[in-house]
C-alpha cells in the first residue's frame, strides 16, 4: 500500500496507462475491494482528477454492465472508494448512468 503513493506523481495519461497495464478495470472483485481499502490511508489524498480516473477505471465498466443487483464485494469496493473520493466517483458514475444507453461515456 505505501507504494501507491506513486499515484500522486502520475500525470492523467500516465495513470490511465498504469491502470491499463494493471488491468484494474477487469481485476477480480476481491482484489478490487483490497485495492480500494489501500487507497484510504493514502496521504496526501489523490487529486480530484486522479480519483476520477481511478473511479472510471475501477468501476465504470462494471457498473454499466450490471443487469442485476451488484455483488456484495462490488458494493464494498464502491463504499470504500466513496468514503474518501465521493465527488470524483459521483462525477464519473452518475454522469455515465444519466447519459443513458447509446449516448456514449465521456
UniProtKB/TrEMBL annotation:
Coiled-coil region(s): none
A biological process from GO: interstrand cross-link repair
A Pfam entry, by short name: FA_FANCE
Domain Fanconi Anaemia group E protein C-terminal: 1-104
Gene3D superfamilies: 1.25.40.480
GO cellular component, one term: Fanconi anaemia nuclear complex
Annotated transmembrane regions: none
Domain of life where this protein originates: Eukaryota
InterPro entries cross-referenced by the UniProt entry: FANCE, Fanconi_anaemia_gr_E_prot_C
Protein name as annotated: FANCE protein
Lineage per the UniProt record: Eukaryota, Metazoa, Chordata, Craniata, Vertebrata
The gene coding this protein: Fance
